[in-house]
Amino acid sequence: MLNSNYVGIAYSTEKKYTDRKKKNWFRPDTQYPEMMFDDCSEHNQVYEAVREALHIYQMDNDNYGTDRWNPLGELIKPGDNVIIKPNLVMDYNQSNEGTECLFTQPEVVAPIIDYILIALKGEGGIIIGDAPMQECNLEKLLEESGYNEMMEWYRNVGVEIKIVDFRGLTTQVDSKKRIGVRKQTISDNQDGTVIDLADMSQFAKYDKEHLEKMRITNYSPDRLKEHHCPGRHEYFVSNYILNADVVINMPKPKTHRKAGYTAAMKNMVGMNVRKEYLPHHTIGSVAEGGDEYKKKSLLRNIDDKLYDIKNTLEGKERYKAAKVVWYIAGGLKLLGNKVHHDEAEGNWYGNKTISKTIVDLNKILFYADKNGHIHDEIQRKTLNIGDMIISGEKEGPVAPSPKQIGAIIIALNAYIFDMGVGIMMGADATNFPFAEDCKNANESLPLCNYQDDELIYVSNDEKLNNKDIKSVSNELKWKFVPTKGWTEMFI
Length: 491
Fold this sequence. Notes:
Layout: E1 6-11, H1 45-56, E2 81-86, H2 106-120, E3 125-130, H3 138-145, H4 147-156, E4 162-165, E5 169-173, E6 182-186, E7 192-196, H5 208-211, E8 214-215, H6 221-227, E9 228-229, E10 232-238, H7 239-242, E11 246-250, E12 254-256, E13 260-262, H8 264-267, E14 281-282, H9 298-315, H10 319-340, H11 354-367, E15 381-395, E16 399-411, H12 414-425, H13 433-441, E17 456-459
Parallel strand pairs: 1-17, 2-3, 2-11, 3-4, 11-15
Antiparallel strand pairs: 1-16, 5-6, 7-10, 8-14, 9-10, 12-13, 15-16
Helix pairs in contact: 1-2, 9-10, 11-13
């Protein structure tokens, strides 16, 4: 197997998904020698691309092309508990441009299930899980996308795979556009462990004044203060993740308003059970110690206070009063956007908050044991496999426009994965906030032991194969259109 400073990019022969009207659309169209099952589809170029990604990454390379090929065998052993963590962020696209660019598609997950089963050899289990956005209708997503149909096929061949909603809290919005006041429901089935990173958190250096300015859109600031204050930095992590021996992280890389782009590291935010534990931005301008927007603005300061009131009222279930405040705050927000011509709510390249949350959660993924205790040694194995058959650009993560790439991305190391994807998108990824936070994290709980210039691409595209990030020409890059607040950080 290759070292973890490699990121693989396997290009498909087509930049589209399978025809879901066809029988067994998620099955391979070729009976490969290693296959456990006989059923094949009429045409499935996506399965071949996933298989090729494992191949170019030299996983069990000696046995490739034989019935002994077990590409995940070094990671997964019989008896292991394996979690597949796709990106199932939302059931509809706010841009009205379809969901293929929005979340991880099931035909990308199916081949990974097959290769996990080969590695498990009949012992152990597979769970697919995520914590989508609070207002996501997950059942609708699973039914309309074909996940349920795929799971039924596996049940019929004797393989039971659970799909789990990690969320401990969901919201309902009384609006067809799902904007406005949010009514919150706490799940009776929430299953997680509160983990305090304390002085190991990326937020540990901040004083009380700064921590009290941190915010999450649509949540009461009082709730966040309970979990992030001097000496305490708590996250509520799914026990399904903590109990896993191996996590197969399957992101949907695309642009992201707050983080610039989302890939492997950001995808693990979906292992958190309750969103009120997740700082997203810090209110105020840069000059005022915030990172919500660049320039000082009295208008936006007033708007911040109104949204705090609205979110606090929602937390107290005073929905009628919250709705009145929401109308006023929403009007001021629109006016502020028109006056200042820049983004609010931390939706720009100056957001230094969300990257710290992302890095903290990745520390927990690697270093927290099954009881949530932090160790110096890595506690579970991971592999990152990204669905970029159709990616998303412009106003991601929940209003993206389709970007046809036709690629499957693979890397052992999440930071290397994200750096490799970002460079190919056309981002100045080495200068993104997450890169700085990852390097700082290496002083306590390392997430990557390689320098950025040690990243090497492996690919079935000979022009890209064995290139480092400095030698990849702009002609080979995908040239994503970023979100409005991140244009200065993309080519």
